[in-house]
């Protein structure tokens, strides 16, 4: 596939409402403000200076204890699941400090109720003037189930049935107010037109919801929907519902194959494939000179204990890696897991002759990947991926917070802008504007649900 | 009871994340910014200038349809349940715009999960530097149940069982990190001390929650707990768990009786009764001269359709009032309802010779009550209630938003300050500081649950 660089790329920032990527909190230029609004406000302003499309917060509803059956490694090493503030409040803080930046939070369809989620994102979309996005996850840790009064997680084959119905309900609720229902005519008086606010009377397998929502239709119609499912059903779900797919890859080849597959899936569902944006995660490590980059890499590498990475990988794979010897190659595992790329990772690791300990260290910060170097080297790589059709942009992860975002904005963004690969100012107002996505009309969701299709 | 005015009074502001009290949105000085952060930011700053203890957001999880079985009257008249943003996001916005103001949101124990609620308020307490409060409600509308996949609400006698266990779990989660668990020692490395973060392994009748929380212990230990239950069990619940009781009254006599009862109940549970703060709601109407007050009252009265009040009263009472004739006295009803004062209201209404329509209009804004007049008249009334032992302060409701808060701060607060009844500046930093409440140690909640007591 040759792809002309007619469009520009899109940039998201993957931010943790906590200590960030394992080891990153130990960096001399990292900051301890995880519990303060200033910390997030400042990141938001940095990203907006850099014209980023959106800030993205992952989430998890437990401190994982997959590694050795204990929370110890997560807490000691400040791993990804150790401390996490509730993300929509953090985004409300960021919304008040910015004017354009998109604002994405992760919420699970397995542990919340659709009325609550529809209302939360409608609220965020209003408070931000049309900048909200929802990263839809089905969750994958039994530890989360055990914080929500369930013995175990919903069986894998059922999770996406629930998610499909969950999205049917949230979309009906977002549509329950017509765009012009809120009148606020003081003289009449007519606050909202009762004929334009309708109950939804949803009755399904998982949910019974009367509606209407108590929040008017979101400025964007629906918030931008993000998804990152690895399984076949997860990909199908994304191709049906998602505006943005977040993914991680170990090579350009697998990235291109994935992007082709997803665009084809979207087209098969009757969608314009350009309206499904693919954003792989990268963890750039940038420096003014190659020598500085090398020294920075050494510094970071020394801050990471292998277990900090392995405890994260354990929870991403949902496998206890503490039972395998640290000084041997990665074990052969059949895992569905979060990454969907374990085999690829293991093969790459074997080829490089890495032990489990070394692979763990590598997994912790991923800065040993491809996006390392001076600004032009990183921009070259990004351009290569973009022009090869591997993606529509990137989700930038920070090896340490907030400094790595600042460096990216100061060093890499200008290089992308010089190449006309990235905007120099925002043109629209909403996140849909930034992403080049049309605003969905009322009812636009119909026909998306696999559950409804199967029932027909 | 003679009570010396040694303490000062406390002020909360009852704010609706929507059009406010019925009819208020029609006021020429009201503003339409319900969906924008500026609207809330400005109210927060006004209240902080006025040294208010806290901003308080009620909540409801449905557009009520109790009046005539339809949403029409709620929507048309912009009544209390017509439009409501999710309150914790609004508070996060306010937190970022203020330094001292306490921030209270209503969340129901009937429709959420304790992990989610504990995490949300821990997040708000951190992001605000110790200013979060939770108004605990058990909910009382079947319309809410029908938005949360339940045919009807949990039976009345079971709601507080669930609430008791809900609070056991949230307190265990808030205690799951010791106050000094977060170390962030980069050299060691030791992010959090695993010995000081403990699973809770709660197994009860309603909830099974392993924990620990993924947010450190809140700065205030626990967020300030507010409650407004009307029933006997509701009062008992408040006397056990609450720091603040929010209530409405129709007379000084009933207010004094209620306050005495609640303080006695708290003492019977082994608590210092001064640590249970009673804040009745009032809707002041203030003007520079009595003549201005009269004209303002006329203006407001003309903005309210009787049905705007009756649709609100219908949902507060959980009774369909549309079946009763508008031009006759209030019907005799046996209702548990939200107000707990229906009989008192009906008697007062009969004595004044009011029809249902007139009582509805009165209920809509309550500005026909006692707290009307020039600043000294209102301050007199407040002082009288305070010194009679009817309360520890007030929850100020605005006949229209945001103007009525501004007038109260400009006209009434200085008068209260002149009388040394109210602070002229904040002394402490946290909401517990403002309220004169000690910070609870880990484990301080033990012995509070009626459910556990009954099981012994
Ligand atoms: C890049 C990426 C990021 C993800 N972020 C989250 C997250 O923040 N929270 C979460 O619960 N799951 C997250 N997931 C997990 C997915 O939502 C999904 O549960 C997982 O990939 C398993 O996919 P499957 O359910 O389709 O098999 C992420 C997955 C990927 C690939
Ligand atoms: C002044 C006051 C304010 C209240 N605010 C709310 C509210 O915002 N949301 C809500 O669901 N219930 C609210 N309630 C209802 C109470 O929490 C409670 O459900 C109701 O008083 C019934 O009491 P009971 O359950 O003890 O019988 C309020 C009650 C009073 C008296």
UniProtKB/TrEMBL annotation, chains A, B:
EC numbers for this chain: 1.-.-.-
Tell me which PANTHER family the record gives: ALKANESULFONATE MONOOXYGENASE-RELATED, C2H2 FINGER DOMAIN TRANSCRIPTION FACTOR (EUROFUNG)-RELATED
Which SUPFAM superfamilies does the protein's record reference?
A: Bacterial luciferase-like
Name the NCBIfam families on file.
FMN_nitrolo
Superkingdom in the source lineage: Bacteria
The enzyme's main class, written as a single word, is oxidoreductase
Oxidoreductase found in the keyword field: yes
Span of domain Luciferase-like: 18-390
Q: Family per UniProt?
A: Belongs to the NtaA/SnaA/DszA monooxygenase family.
Annotated keywords = Flavoprotein, FMN, Monooxygenase, Oxidoreductase
Task: Report if keyword Transmembrane helix is assigned.
Answer: no
Source organism lineage? Bacteria, Pseudomonadati, Pseudomonadota, Alphaproteobacteria, Hyphomicrobiales
Q: What is this protein called?
A: LLM class flavin-dependent oxidoreductase
Q: Which GO terms describe its molecular function?
A: oxidoreductase activity
A Pfam match: Bac_luciferase
What InterPro entries does this protein's entry cite? Diverse_substr_monoxygenases (IPR051260), Luciferase-like_dom (IPR011251), Luciferase-like_sf (IPR036661), NTA_MOA (IPR016215)
